[in-house]
Amino acid sequence: xxxxxxxxxxVSYSLHSGDRLEMPSCVTSEWAARTSSEDILRHLNVxxxxxxxxxEAASRRKxxxxxxxxxxxxxxxxxxxxxxxxxxxxxxxxASAAISVLMGQYDDALSITVAIVIVVTVAFVxxxxxxQSLNELKKLLPPHCHCYxxxxxxxxxxxxLVPGDVxxxxxxxxxxxxxxxxxxxxxxVDESSFTGETEPAQKTSSTLAAGDVQSVSSxxxxxxxxxxxxxxxxRGVVTATGTNSEFGEVFKLMQKEEAPRxxxxxSMGKLGKQLAFVSLCVIGVxxxxxxxxxxxxxxxxxxxxxxxxxxxxxxxxxxxxxxTLALGSMRVAKRDAIVKKLPTVESLGCTNVICSDKxxxxxxxxxxxxxxxxxxGDVAKVSGSGYDTHGHVTVxxxxxxxxxxxxxxxxxxxxxxxxxAMFSNGVLIGQxxxxxxxxxxxxxxxxxxxxxxxxxxEIPFSSDKKWMAVACHSQQAAQSQADVHYFVxxxxxxVLSRCQHYQAYYQGAKIESILAAD
Length: 518
What we know:
Elements: H1 29-33, H2 37-44, H3 54-64, H4 77-82, H5 88-102, H6 106-140, E1 144-149, E2 152-157, E3 166-170, E4 178-190, H7 192-195, E5 201-202, E6 222-223, E7 228-240, H8 246-256, H9 263-293, H10 298-311, H11 316-334, H12 343-349, E8 371-373, E9 379-382, E10 393-395, E11 398-399, H13 406-417, E12 422-424, E13 427-429, H14 432-443, E14 453-459, E15 467-474, E16 484-490, H15 492-496, E17 501-506, E18 509-514
Antiparallel strand pairs: 1-2, 1-3, 3-7, 4-5, 4-6, 4-7, 8-9, 9-10, 10-11, 12-13, 14-15, 15-16, 17-18
Helix pairs in contact: 5-6, 5-9, 6-11, 9-10, 13-14
């Protein structure tokens, strides 16, 4: 019988009719896709509203491990040092040194040995330092997630997620684990890095039929680890983490593959083999001529031929190559880049184009509102940076009291109500743009405008339509269908193209005017 539950460490489970796991483990995405959300939550023993407790999460983490990919890199330092001797050129030089010792040519043997030690040590030290620097960088920028623990939304490292955690995802978020979706609002995920599909996948929370979940791309109620949310938002429960996820299967296959060799490594390896072949040919030819043709002593001719062959091997070449690469690595380091393996410097020199996704990688992913403009002619300047609320909003050089500027109040109110960002313990949960809007409301001394409304519908932002809208009832008239308010925010050109009127205030009085067409 095929198991629908995957192994975790030394513990594994399988599903039989009527069975219930005492300690929930990771489940396959195929089983999760064809199982109702209620059954998933019951099996994972979690409440969708409150999530897991810290103690329960810690217990599950002991069983399944952390939500990360750990590379098989447990080699001690001495093994990493000895691995430098695997290069064909180094092996050829070692053979030359050994032959020189056997022939009593200790000076040659010593010079070759010194050359080998220099080459191996320089390469090892440079690569070891780069490896340590990369490990420190990984600790500085760990991926984070938004998760419900004890009924409250928290932001912490994604490596701490366990099966059963309830997570929230929005536009721009990287999916932290394999997630069975419980609620979706126009949720689309870019799965191109995983499935190869160029178009974003539309997601749903509905249960799928068993015949509709055969391929990974057909499991539309699942969000897979490593993919990117590009529209809408969703909430779901984690079903698999780390190497037990679908992306983890790809990682396992990648671990079995050897790293490709650079052009320089291939050239050096080819040169080493050619020199070894030529050396053997020289030994054979001289032996044949001296011993067979001229009838000289065999040992004498062997000594001469081996000496010539050893002399033909350029022991200085590896030193020149290694030192050149080390200098290149240091030059790259001065430009704030780290090269893990020395031969990579040569590959970098052959590169013509480098493609980089800069958002959140080359920037802090923090935005700040600096200026605000209203139809009433107000021009507000905002001081401060980031999400620090210690700043001021001024209009015409005077500190602004939001209720003295009703147009400014309506602008900020609309932007806040039409957003999903929130702060938890000083950490932004949501998009950077919306975090900047919430921050400017706090600088104006406004209480959260979303507390005055009950949201009944949402059309999420997408990069295609460039606007977002929500429909809300006010708290005072929540049951009145006539009291529905629509709030819209987006790029100026897309919002204005849908407007027929605009609101302005003159000496405290509201004025509605017709928006002139271009």
